[in-house]
Design a protein that fits this description.
5 domains; Immunoglobulin-like; TIM Barrel; mainly beta; eight-stranded parallel β-barrel; Jelly Rolls
Length: about 900
């Protein structure tokens, strides 16, 4: 293994003022060729669909949904009992709010068991089909955007497995269900209802031929043709299945019918960008939609988001993929096609925004990028290139905004070409390459110092390195960064020592990626032999052998370090005699980041999303690469990461041609306005409360601005404006009671106490009297530390999670100040954080928390804070 893989520090690798292409230097590199002049069609963007990826309202949050740009999902049918959450009618508002196009529903989810109805075909299924179709037709705001799936995996254990004996029954049932759904829609004047099928567990050529011939003859052809692609080898065979199907259509004389692969990928692929890109590249190349399989639980995009509102590495790849909307995809030539676990890519060009993009990953070697076809009419004679790296963080581990690791500044195009190498840190990582015309802004790599190391490459004592073969067990596993991790970390002497040199004295965030199996746990962190702090972990999923020790989350602590070399020692014991509670935790990777200056994170205008006609412009001298946002409906969107809930300075650098105001919305709420008094170059800063995880920032301007960039910087000192109340100190009503957790539990509850038995009746609440810090009407955020481990019935392999709702009312105010659903936390003594936005109408009305209709989550503490502090500051600048 090359030395840079042992401790990898993200360093600024810049190449400024080049007049010739940056030629490849590594003769052993994998060559990836992209020809932007050879279009392969309009970007479809349907490969990141989900199966039960939505739980209840707000789980996932709107920021996660919109940022991931999910266009299609399959959800539980109305009145369905297959899962406790995810009813299509209950999640449609959040799904359709921005990017959602097609809401699929599994009609058979009316049944609670798997296989459906015990695997036996019922006699009254048409009644259920009618009930479900009637609910969508009469209760959905978007019934024409639904797709009904009458049968899911009929070739499996669901009613029609034996084709020799059940073929005619299935075909007749298909016709009957198809006709019944159309009858319901016609009754309500809705026109044609879209129906998808047959829905087989895999590509079934004989069954598909029988089905298509019958469907054509009986005028019941599906609107979407559906099958599943599951298994490791499907990366090799998928394209051949697609080709077989299209040939079948031709032979039957139908089509082409749109395709949705409503289940694809194995467990090992989820949350792993270097795996995900291999699937996305196939599906985008074929222009088919697809939905990730449901292997664990509902409401987290099938393990492609983290915690309640955070990104893992899989989410960032989804976001990058969604950023390609409006582009045309182009020809990509990887080292090999139709192969398992190899370098693959998507290339696209957005001529409106003058932006070319390559997303790639899956290879283990340095990648030599050979980019061609960069039209001078779009890109000019020189280009800027930025490369961002997105490394594996675990299914529940938080991944921050992917850093820029390499830039080419003003490199000259030679006949529309440019070439350069990018070293690969880990084959499970993915990379984003963005090429634009030369901008006024100077691209910078490594602006915030960070370093990372694989746990197996540290100095280990009383611990074992395990190899995690990505193809073992048929793909029923979660992958470890670098292909190995550290376990058996269960002795008083167990420790992992990382010697690292930091560039300056200051504050550093230390992050551990690891798996805490089913219960919260603790480690001690020593710096140069002296105890520094406790690393507290929340629980991770551990219901099965393929989840336990592998479903990796993360924990973060901030520590002071002086400039120079230090040894960071993560230990299972504080005293070398007794192990800390639940300290037997799998260790995958450590990261260290300089947060002394608030970790300023820049989101350049050339990389943002735009809507309503806003776009990047290169036509204004001094503002090349700026975002033009002007007039009603136009907006720029930023999906900004916050490592912790608190106040951040949100800074806009921009230009105006006259007096102008920019409106800032945060997570769907209008929070403040940033004003420039006249024409010129400006920097405006607002101090805004951001929630832990992904925050959706939307910028609009009636008069118009030219936006250079948005920067978020942590302003931790301002957190004194927030008020934290331990829930056990609140006024309790009804059955609400204090839970106390023993030290041995390893619980991360503050003070080892929390409130339980909240809700399930209007009287069972807790109350917070108004006090300083939240004693005025206005917009506030309430961060709730909570636990919820409720399950709603048995399932063969999925935890049937229940999203619990917490309502906030204000005495003397409106009927509801706010509410949110709170997702699964794996254990009742393991706490996560979820933020509720509230609008308070009075200065003195108490805040009451409860849920009249069902149990609310257990609550550890709440933090109440105004969403904005002070008045935004605008400064004139000599240039942006």
């Amino acid at each position: 293994m090359r030395s840079f893989l042992k401790i990898m520090t993200v360093v600024a690798i810049t190449t400024a003022g080049l007049s010739v292409p940056a030629a490849a230097a590594d003769p052993n590199a994998d060559v990836l060729s992209v020809d932007f002049a050879q279009s392969t069609g309009s970007f479809r963007g349907g490969a990141t669909g989900t199966l039960y990826g939505f739980g209840d309202e707000g789980a996932p949050t709107s920021a996660l949904i919109n940022g991931a740009a999910i266009t299609n999902t399959s959800q539980k049918a109305p009145y369905g009992t297959q899962h406790p959450s995810g009813d299509a009618l209950k999640v449609e508002d959040g799904f359709f709010a921005k990017h959602g196009k097609d809401m699929y529903i599994y009609v058979q989810d009316f049944y609670p068991d798997w296989p459906y109805n015990g695997g036996v075909r019922p006699s009254n299924y048409l009644e259920i089909v009618e009930t479900v179709a009637e609910a969508v037709a009469t209760k959905s705001a978007r019934p024409k955007d639904y797709v009904f799936i009458p049968f899911n995996e009929p070739d499996g254990g669901n009613w029609y497995a034996n084709w020799a004996t059940m073929k005619n029954t299935f075909l007749a049932d298909w016709k009957a269900t198809y006709s019944k759904i159309q009858e319901v829609y016609a009754r309500h004047g809705l026109g044609h209802a879209r129906i998808g099928g047959p829905g087989d567990t895999g590509w079934q050529p004989a069954r598909s031929a029988d089905f298509l011939n019958y469907a054509k003859a009986n005028a019941v052809l599906p609107d979407i043709f559906i099958w599943h692609e599951l298994g490791i080898d499907n990366l090799r065979t998928f394209r051949s299945h697609f080709a077989d199907y299209r040939r079948l259509e031709t032979s039957v004389g139908v089509g082409p019918i749109p395709i949705n692969i409503t289940e694809y990928r194995m467990l090992r692929d989820m949350g792993t960008p270097g795996q995900l890109i291999q699937w996305l590249s196939i599906m985008e190349d074929l222009k088919v939609d697809g939905q990730t399989a449901y292997w664990n639980y509902a409401g987290n995009f099938n393990d492609n988001s983290a915690r309640t509102n955070s990104a893992n590495a899989g989410w960032w790849l989804y976001k990058w993929y969604g950023d390609l909307a409006g582009s045309r995809t182009v020809k990509v030539t990887p080292p090999a096609l139709n192969a398992v676990d190899t370098l693959q890519a998507i290339g696209a060009v957005d001529t409106a925004n003058k932006r070319a993009t390559v997303l790639y990953g899956g290879g283990s070697k340095t990648v030599s990028l050979k980019l061609a076809g960069l039209d001078a009419a779009t890109f000019g004679s020189k280009v800027d290139v930025e490369v961002r790296e997105n490394t594996l963080s675990g299914a529940e581990g938080v991944a921050g905004t992917p850093p820029v690791i390499k830039v080419l500044d003003g490199v000259a195009l030679v006949n529309g070409t440019v070439s350069f190498d990018v070293p690969t840190y880990d084959r499970y990582a993915a990379y984003q390459v963005v090429i634009t015309p030369e901008q006024e802004r100077t691209p910078v790599a490594g602006s915030v110092w960070t370093a990372q190391t694989e746990a197996e490459n540290t100095a280990l004592t009383a611990a074992t390195v395990y190899t995690q073969d990505p193809q073992a067990g048929g793909g029923w596993k979660f992958l470890a960064s670098g292909g190995r991790d550290v376990g058996s970390f269960n002795q008083p002497t167990s420790k992992a020592d990382w010697t690292v040199t930091v560039p300056r004295s200051g504050k550093y965030r230390f992050q551990v990626i690891g798996a805490t199996p089913g219960k919260p746990g603790r480690h001690a962190l020593f710096v140069d032999g002296t105890r520094s702090t406790i690393v507290q972990y929340a629980a991770d999923l551990a219901l099965t052998d393929y989840q336990k020790w592998q479903y990796r989350g993360s924990s973060e602590v901030t520590i002071p370090l002086t400039a120079g070399q230090h040894t960071l020692s993560l230990r299972a014991s504080e005293d070398g005699v007794a192990v800390l509670p639940n300290s037997d935790i799998t260790l995958d990777k450590f990261l260290l980041t300089d947060v002394t200056d608030g970790e300023p994170t820049v989101y350049p205008a050339s990389t943002l999303r735009y809507a309503g006609g806003a776009q990047v412009t290169y036509g204004t001298t001094g503002a090349r690469g700026y975002g033009s946002v002007r007039g009603a409906g136009q907006r720029a969107e930023v999906y900004a990461n916050a490592w912790e809930t608190g106040y951040y300075d949100v800074t806009l650098d921009y230009r105006t041609s006259a007096a102008a105001t920019a409106d800032l919305r945060v997570n769907g709420r209008s929070v403040t306005k940033l004003t420039a008094a006249r024409d010129g170059s400006w920097r405006s800063t607002a101090r805004v409360r951001l929630a832990q995880g992904i925050n959706e920032l939307e910028l609009s301007s009636a008069a118009g601005i030219l936006l250079k960039q948005v920067t978020t910087t942590r302003a931790a000192a301002a957190d004194t404006a927030a008020v934290t109340i331990e829930a056990e100190n609140a006024v309790r009503h009804g059955t609400t009671a204090v839970n106390t957790y023993p030290t041995a539990s390893g619980s991360n509850a503050s003070g080892l106490k929390a409130l339980g038995y909240i809700g399930n009746g209007a009287a069972n609440t807790f109350e917070i009297p108004r006090g300083p810090g939240f004693d005025k009407p206005g917009a506030y955020d309430i961060a709730v530390s909570y636990a919820n481990a409720e399950l709603g019935g048995p399932h063969a392999y999925n935890p049937q999670v229940v999203d619990r709702r917490l309502d906030v009312t204000e005495t003397g105010g409106a009927a509801s100040a706010g509410h949110a659903y709170f997702r699964y936390t794996y254990a009742w003594d393991s706490f996560l954080e979820r933020t509720i936005g509230v609008e308070l109408k009075t200065a003195s009305g108490s805040l009451v928390f409860g849920n009249a209709g069902a149990y609310a989550p257990d609550v550890d503490k709440i933090t109440i804070a105004p969403i904005v502090l002070g008045t935004p500051i605008t400064q004139k600048r000599s240039g942006c």
